[in-house]
From TrEMBL, chain A:
[4Fe-4S] cluster binds at residues 287, 367, 384, 424. The lineage of its organism: Eukaryota, Metazoa, Chordata, Craniata, Vertebrata. This is DNA primase large subunit. It comes from the Eukaryota. It comes from Poecilia mexicana. Keywords: 4Fe-4S, DNA replication, DNA-binding, Iron, Iron-sulfur, Metal-binding, Primosome. Regulatory subunit of the DNA primase complex and component of the DNA polymerase alpha complex (also known as the alpha DNA polymerase-primase complex) which play an essential role in the initiation of DNA synthesis. The primase subunit of the polymerase alpha complex initiates DNA synthesis by oligomerising short RNA primers on both leading and lagging strands. Pfam families: DNA_primase_lrg, DNA_primase_lrg_N. One of its GO terms (cellular component) is alpha DNA polymerase:primase complex.
UniProtKB/TrEMBL annotation, chain B:
This is DNA primase. The lineage of its organism: Eukaryota, Metazoa, Chordata, Craniata, Vertebrata. Belongs to the eukaryotic-type primase small subunit family. GO terms for biological process: DNA replication initiation; DNA replication, synthesis of primer. GO terms for molecular function: DNA-directed RNA polymerase activity; metal ion binding.
Length: 508, 426
């Protein structure tokens, strides 16, 4: 009698307790039941948030004013909890719950490969850093203690005694008045990076860390925990995948592209086959230029290359008849005779246009898809050159395409930082002689469209691209993913996204 | 001196005697058992032996002190190394599912080897040492001991002579034994100031501000530098070594000093010129302002092999093992007497075996102890063994080891009491 009435209260108390903190380490997975639609929508929202974090992170200096403003915005729009803003308690709990659950769902999707893990960890760490910095010092201490990081600030007296030692041992401490900075006493085992480089004062096994450095330590802790957790999650994946409802969604999430899909052909027949060679040099992104070159040289492309390039051509407006003619002409120059082409290859081209098999109209691959799935092997020319080419070879290729030496090194720097799409954007800027691209590159066909715009393409083409551009331009925010369609109703938006996810999946 | 009578060919005869009557098994076990606070700590410890004809065996482990004794007396190892405490008994590691057999804990260790200083000592090279370059070890012990205690908060440090050309440090605190590989590597790097190998001329570069650790280390180095470097090593007395020193100063200063040195021959005065030049640089330039400190550090600062300290499973020569080439016993160094420590006075296995047979001065004292023990026959063999090392030169080293263990024992007692208290609670 008394027990049963206690039980529900205990559960809600637990929830209130878990969501009483503005920030968490995601140590405990959620233990409730949720609907499939909530599962999906939470996950998609968080993915959007993380992509925004990624884009802002490479477009702006992290945590500068622009960055903060835009990230605040995105968080509010996507209904995630905001730090430092006092809201209605119930609303707050709801948002924190969403944050908690969505994090764990994405763990499932992003634990599978090194690349995915690295990406996920990077964005989550950046998001955590943004939130942690928003806490005031009292909240920070509370967070540290609640998470068993027994770091304590030192008293003013101790600070005074150690004054000289503290100022000369930490870069972060020099230049800032000792009185104004909080110093934390941390066991040296928790500050290894600072110890290793001798950037901190040590006394009797404790490192004396100025406030700014504490953030680094907490972040490293977060990063390490998440990394371990993802490794563990990967091991339990088979069990998760056995649930048929979840497997497709999780796969979509890790390969998804949430922008315009270029599935609906807008410029059919506007491009003539004779133009392709010159367009390849002028308006194709490097991946497609490479594929086109390989096709011309070898009179053949393997399946991966045919899919990536073929769908791209469809996206820029080649009709089925044109595509058949294009591929046939080229293959015949090689080892394939007309008969064989009609029997074997023509079928797959028609398939691409949705005229065979289940008649699905495939969408051209997004940058994400090109970068993350189906890496090329020996004899392949598909993939993303910035991701998949050996940097030396990439350098040579860029030089042969007359990119300036300083441009080449800028691109290689971005490649080293794994910002492949930004490297491609830089390639765009250098080959089109523009200072700054007005778009954030996420799709090869987008590259083509933008390029045509810059080069002042045909009147018709221009009009079409305007229609395509409008939703993107309305967001006015540089660096946000395309497909910000605020006017569109949420559920329709979601349906469209899911449809995109489905078709991407089927393409694989 | 009898210690020079050591002949490696005699090892096969001396080792059995050493392991039967001299090796301090009781203290050794007491150490590695760490008060029995953690279950199976001794049993899961890896030892490795190098036997006659260079046969090397790993993953040796023992379930008790008596088993350790029996096995060592049977195998008569030429060399003994101590490894990590594993998750399972090392001698059963083949029966464990692959991946489960893991090194869990080990003392934090440091190895200072004189050959790493060959580019800065002129008296000896390679495996040779002499009293002149031994000062480098003294400096190393002083600097590292201070830092490990004051900066890192460790308390139980055992410094051991390696038997030939260096010293080892065993940090035995519980916190040290539990350190991860990353933490060990971080500690080793914190303590490292000498960067670069054969190809690098200037191995120490200091930047502003100078970290408190470096300041403390410089204080030690400055104490020894005049006698050790200017006198004993005579680094500014001969053309060749003088050039090596000048290679470490900025170009413009080098030219000035070369001129000055044409007239000034006295090493101490030469050094003062170098100091003066450095002072000038400090007031004028942003770079190169600490070159005189950099020189001192390059010639004197401890050079440790980071790889030895990094690995949790790294095997290191055991205290009280014999060095087959020199015959010397790896004895603990009493820090109170570190200045006076003389590696050439360390007893060799042949010396202490010889001393076993010699009657000792206070034989009467031994006889009266004998009478007291007639009551307990079982213990007499044990007691005889204890008495045995006591009449040799090994005695004072074992006594020091006892003191070291007594220091640690307090922490064990506290732990055991807490554990039993917890068990009493329901």
């Amino acid at each position: 009698m008394q027990f049963s009435s206690k039980k529900p209260r205990a559960v809600t108390d637990l929830k209130a307790e878990l969501y009483s903190q503005p920030l968490q380490f995601y140590a405990q997975p959620p233990l409730e039941n949720i609907s499939l639609s909530e599962f999906e929508s939470f996950a998609v929202d968080r993915l959007k948030l993380l992509k925004t974090v990624e884009n802002l992170g490479v477009s702006y200096v992290k945590l500068n004013d622009d960055y903060l403003k835009k990230l605040d915005n995105e968080i509010r729009t996507l209904n995630f909890p905001q730090v430092g803003v006092s809201l209605d308690a119930k609303d707050q709990t709801e948002k924190r719950r969403k944050d908690h659950i969505s994090h764990f769902i994405l763990r499932l999707a992003y634990c599978q490969t090194e690349d995915l893990r690295r990406w996920f960890i990077q964005q989550e760490v950046d998001l955590f850093k943004y939130r942690f910095k928003k806490l005031d010092s009292g909240e920070k201490l509370e967070f540290l203690h609640k998470n068993n990081l027994q770091y304590n600030t030192i008293s003013a007296e101790e600070k005074d005694n150690l004054r000289e030692k503290l100022t000369i041992s930490s870069y972060a401490a020099s230049g800032v008045k000792l009185e104004e900075q909080d110093f934390y006493k941390v066991p040296f085992q928790d500050a290894l990076d600072l110890v290793r480089t001798r950037k901190v004062y040590l006394k009797e096994g404790y490192a004396y860390i100025p406030h700014n450095e504490i953030v680094t330590i907490v972040l490293n802790d977060f990063r390490t925990r998440l990394s371990k957790a993802l490794a563990l999650t990967a091991r339990s994946l088979p069990a998760v995948h056995s649930d048929e409802r979840l497997q497709p969604l999780l796969n979509h999430l890790s390969h998804s592209y949430l922008g315009q899909d270029y599935s609906v052909q807008k410029n059919v027949g506007k491009i003539s086959l004779e133009q392709i060679d010159s367009l390849a040099g002028k308006s194709f992104p490097l991946c497609m230029r490479q594929l086109h070159q390989a096709l011309r040289d070898q009179h053949h492309l393997r399946h991966g290359g045919r899919m990536q390039y073929g769908l791209f051509l469809k996206g820029i407006g080649l009709s089925l008849e044109q595509a058949l003619q294009f591929w046939r002409m080229e293959f015949i120059r090689g080892k394939v005779d007309a008969d064989k082409f009609d029997k074997a290859y023509a079928y797959s081209i028609r398939h691409m246009f949705g005229k065979e098999g289940k008649r699905a109209d495939y969408t051209p691959y997004s940058c994400m898809k090109v970068i993350l799935s189906n890496p090329p092997s020996q004899g392949d020319y598909h993939g993303c050159p910035f991701r998949h080419s050996d940097p030396e070879l990439l350098k040579q290729k860029l030089q042969s395409y007359k990119v300036s030496p300083s441009g080449v090194s800028q691109i290689l720097e971005l490649v080293k930082g794994m910002h492949y799409q930004l490297a491609c954007q830089k390639y765009f800027e250098l080959t089109h002689n523009v200072e700054d691209t007005s778009f954030s590159l996420s799709h090869p066909n987008q590259y083509f469209t933008e390029s045509q715009k810059v080069l002042g393409g045909g009147k018709d083409v221009k009009r079409e691209t305007d229609t395509l551009q409008r939703p993107q331009e309305s967001s006015a925010a540089r660096g946000l993913t395309a497909a910000r369609e605020p006017a569109v109703d949420e559920s329709q938006h979601l349906a469209e996204i899911t449809k995109n996810l489905e078709t991407d999946f089927q393409d694989a | 001196m009898p210690s020079s009578d050591y002949d490696p060919a005699c090892l096969p005869d001396l080792l059995p005697l050493y392991y039967r009557r001299l090796f301090p098994f009781a203290q050794y076990y007491r150490w590695l058992n760490y008060g029995g606070v953690q279950k199976n700590y001794f049993q899961n410890r890896e030892f490795s032996f190098t036997l006659k004809d260079d046969i090397y065996v790993r993953y040796q482990s023992f379930s008790s002190q008596s088993e350790l004794e029996k096995e060592m007396q049977k195998m008569n190892p030429y060399k003994i190394d101590i490894g990590a405490v594993y998750s399972h008994r090392p001698n059963q590691h083949n029966t464990v599912k692959s991946g489960s057999f893991q090194a869990l804990e080990k003392e934090l260790v440091f190895d200072i080897d004189m050959t790493d200083y060959d580019d800065v000592r002129s008296c000896c090279s390679a495996a040779d040492i002499c009293s002149k370059c031994w000062t480098l070890m003294t400096i190393a012990i002083r600097i590292l001991d201070r830092s490990l205690r004051q900066d890192f908060g460790f308390h139980h440090l055992l410094w051991v002579y390696s038997g030939r050309r260096g010293v080892h440090c065993w940090v035995c605190d519980e916190a040290a034994r539990k350190l991860s590989a990353a933490a060990r590597s971080a500690v080793a790097e914190y303590l490292s100031l000498i960067k670069g190998g054969e190809e690098t001329v200037k191995k120490v570069v200091l930047t502003d501000p100078i970290h408190p650790f470096i300041r403390e280390s410089l204080t030690v180095v400055e104490r020894y530098f005049p006698q050790y470097a200017l006198q004993d090593q005579n680094i500014l007395g001969r053309k060749e070594s003088e050039e090596k020193v000048l290679a470490l100063v900025p170009e413009d200063v080098k030219k000035e000093l070369q001129e000055i040195f044409q007239e000034e021959r006295n090493p101490e005065r030469r050094w003062r010129h170098i100091e003066a030049q450095a002072k000038k640089k400090q007031t004028t330039a942003k770079k190169w302002q600490y070159f005189e400190k950099e020189i001192m550090l390059q010639y004197c600062y401890p050079r440790l092999d980071v790889n030895v300290s990094k690995g949790v499973n790294h095997l290191l020569k055991s205290p009280f093992s014999v060095h087959p080439k020199t015959g010397r016993i790896s004895v603990p160094i009493d820090l109170k007497d570190v200045e006076k420590f003389d590696p050439f006075a360390v007893p060799t296995i042949s010396l202490i075996c010889e001393e076993l047979d010699r009657p000792k001065a206070d034989e009467d004292e031994a006889k009266s102890e004998d009478a007291k023990e007639k009551e307990n026959e079982q213990d007499s063999a044990e007691k005889r063994k204890i008495r045995d090392y006591k009449r040799t030169s090994l005695a004072k080293y074992v006594k020091y080891f006892d003191q070291f263990l007594a220091g640690m024992a307090d922490s064990w007692k506290g732990k055991l009491r807490r554990q039993s208290d917890l068990q009493k609670e329901f």
